[in-house]
């Protein structure tokens, strides 16, 4: 029987081509006149997104301060820099223009302006009880941070990549224009898709009789795989971009997790230790490598569901055959399938396992301790 659950999502999603110019009106209609604009390395200044967003802000007489330079696997130091900027300019809201890293940073900033030290929230020492409103313009579909209350930040000094979650961190309005993603580097498209697939699988494999949610998962996985195949043939295919973007949002906006016992986030915990070690490693790339190894290791905990995955997603008679097909597809997409391909050395696996369980054991389907994690890492190596 499906367990009881409480579904909540207050984010307004504005989806479609030529929607970037609406961001100013949504901010103004919400009553805000001063925002902090957060962005990444500057690609939005080359693809027209920055011009469209700032023109929209100007049209509504909204003032803004800018903070560029948010990196993939966003850092605590950048969060603290942006908090200081937000306080200096007395902003009323935070506007994230970018992908999940930028949006996660925006959420940490939004809460951090009301705290002595935002990292205390990541450590679980304090609860978030207030945050500035967050608005987002999504430029890379992967994390669904545009429509959830979660954020993951890396503490570079302590080598910790940890997350927070709060109802106060849901974006107020998120704008998704799939056409702006047609210029993405292919590697980012693939890694974003792998990240979205991982979000679905974290819920899917704890499934038992939750047919509605499980069927949603399967539809989303099939869609993501099919759209990446199409985009490999034609990266400018806006319809495929749109379908991929919406599937990635649905993967972690709460709908896919309804009745799924909170999911099993062991692979995310393991991957965080990897991209914490080397911030140049994309989160999605690490997840695409870890999931097949994790499936192999925990198969006996829910064989019915793993066999269903093999049959319905990969048209395979066994999980091992499905894993071979999954890895082959990732290779076809020019992605990675082994940890050593990311530059991870075998002698680092023990330390990675230790880092992964720093907050305790991982997983729900099977509790994973350090020795388990190390075995999975070796299977993935």
Q: How much helix, percentage-wise, in residues?
A: 40-55%
The portion of residues forming beta strands comes to 5-15%
What do the pLDDT scores average to? 97
The tally of helices reads 14
Shape: globular
Summarize the structure.
With 381 residues, the chain is α/β, with parallel strands linked by helices.
Walk me through the topology.
Layout: E1 12-15, H1 23-29, E2 34-39, H2 49-59, E3 63-67, H3 76-88, E4 93-98, H4 100-112, H5 119-122, E5 134-138, E6 150-155, E7 160-165, E8 173-176, H6 186-204, H7 211-233, H8 238-250, H9 266-277, H10 283-298, H11 303-314, H12 319-332, H13 349-356, H14 370-380
Parallel strand pairs: 1-8, 2-3, 2-4, 4-5, 5-8
Antiparallel strand pairs: 6-7
Molecular structure report:
With 381 residues, the protein is α/β, with parallel strands linked by helices. Helices cover 46% and strands 11% of the residues. It has helices at residues 23-29, 49-59, 76-88, 100-112, 119-122, 186-204, 211-233, 238-250, 266-277, 283-298, 303-314, 319-332, 349-356, 370-380; strands at residues 12-15, 34-39, 63-67, 93-98, 134-138, 150-155, 160-165, 173-176. A six-stranded parallel β-sheet has the order 1-8-5-4-2-3, with helices on both faces. Helix 6 packs parallel to helix 10 (283-298) and helix 9 crosses helix 13.
């Amino acid at each position: 029987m499906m367990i009881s659950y409480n579904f909540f999502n207050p984010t307004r999603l504005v989806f479609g081509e030529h929607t970037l110019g609406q961001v100013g009106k949504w901010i103004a209609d919400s009553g805000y006149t001063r925002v902090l604009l957060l962005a990444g390395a500057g690609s939005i200044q080359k693809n027209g997104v920055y011009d469209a967003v700032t023109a929209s802000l100007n049209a509504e007489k909204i003032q803004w301060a800018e903070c560029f330079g948010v990196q993939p696997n966003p850092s605590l130091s950048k969060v603290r820099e942006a908090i200081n900027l937000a306080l200096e300019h007395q902003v009323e809201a935070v506007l994230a223009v970018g992908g999940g890293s930028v949006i996660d940073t925006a959420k940490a900033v939004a809460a951090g302006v009301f705290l002595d030290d935002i990292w205390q929230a990541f450590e679980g020492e304090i609860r978030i009880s207030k945050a500035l409103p967050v608005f987002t313009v999504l430029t890379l579909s992967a994390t669904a941070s545009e429509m959830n209350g979660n954020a993951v930040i890396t503490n570079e000094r302590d080598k910790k990549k940890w997350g927070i979650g709060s109802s106060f961190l849901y974006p107020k309005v998120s704008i998704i224009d799939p056409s702006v993603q047609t210029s993405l580097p292919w590697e980012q498209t693939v890694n974003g898709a792998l990240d979205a697939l991982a979000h679905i699988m974290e819920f899917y494999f704890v499934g038992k009789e939750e047919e509605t949610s499980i069927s949603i998962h399967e539809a989303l996985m099939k869609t993501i795989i099919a759209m990446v195949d199409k985009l490999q043939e034609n990266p400018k295919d806006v319809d495929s971009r749109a379908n991929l973007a919406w599937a990635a949002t649905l993967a972690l906006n709460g709908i896919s997790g309804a009745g799924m016992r909170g999911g099993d986030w062991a692979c995310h915990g393991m991957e965080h230790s990897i991209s914490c070690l080397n911030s140049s490693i994309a989160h999605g790339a690490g997840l695409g490598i870890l999931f097949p190894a994790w499936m192999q290791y925990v198969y006996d905990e829910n064989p019915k569901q793993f066999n269903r995955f093999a049959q319905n997603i990969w048209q395979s008679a066994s999980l091992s055959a499905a894993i071979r097909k999954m890895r082959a597809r990732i290779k076809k997409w020019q992605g990675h399938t082994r940890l050593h391909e990311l530059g991870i050395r075998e002698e680092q696996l023990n330390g990675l396992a230790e880092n992964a369980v720093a907050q305790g054991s991982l997983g729900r389907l099977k509790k994973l301790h350090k020795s388990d994690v190390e075995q999975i890492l070796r299977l993935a190596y």
